[in-house]
Amino acid sequence: MAAQPDAQAALDQAVAAWNRAGASWDAQALAAIYAEDALLFGGRPGHSVGRAAIQGYFASYDGVIFSGAMQMFGTELRMLAPGCVLAQGIVEFAFTLAGGERTRSTLRATLVLRREAGDWRIADHHFSTVPPAPPLGKD
Questions:
Q1: Helix residue spans in the chain (DSSP H)
Q2: Which of 49, 83, 95, 111 is in the most buried spot, having the most CB atoms within 10 Å?
């Protein structure tokens, strides 16, 4: 199924906003990209529910991450309803860490974007590692 232009524009807006906030690792600006009732599964155990908890999640990296940027590719997009987009694909992060170290991470990504007050906000964020083998319970 070909991506609908509105769906691609939604993803592009959300990624650009994330990258602007991530450029200086601003936890408050990063959290503002998320819906007030958003859900986030990120790189720490557990999940964050609501914008305040999501801000706390990003703030937990203060002093560790100095800047971050993401790029999504291989993305499948679906308009779930008017003003609601599902984006699923691969995300590549580039981080500058304390001491100037630069790192890259490639993860699977699922975002649900919701149109609110003229902007696209992330309502659900789930990133996870690509498993080296199918998880069949034999590890």
A1: 5-22, 27-31, 51-59
A2: 111
Distance, CA of 104 to CA of 64 (rounded, Å): 14
- pTM for this prediction: 0.90
Of 42, 18, 69, residue with least CA distance to 124:
42
pLDDT single digits (tens) 78-125? 999 999 999 999 999 999 999 999 999 999 999 999 999 889 999 999
Nearest to 33 by CA among 70, 74, 80, 77: 70
Residue type, 29: A
> What's the token pair of residue 75?
């993305």
The pLDDT assigned to 4 comes to 67
- For the record, the structure tokens of 42 come out as 């990120």
pLDDT tens, residue by residue, 51-86: 999 999 999 999 999 999 999 999 999 999 999 999
**Which residues share a beta bridge with 48?**
40
DSSP, res 98: G
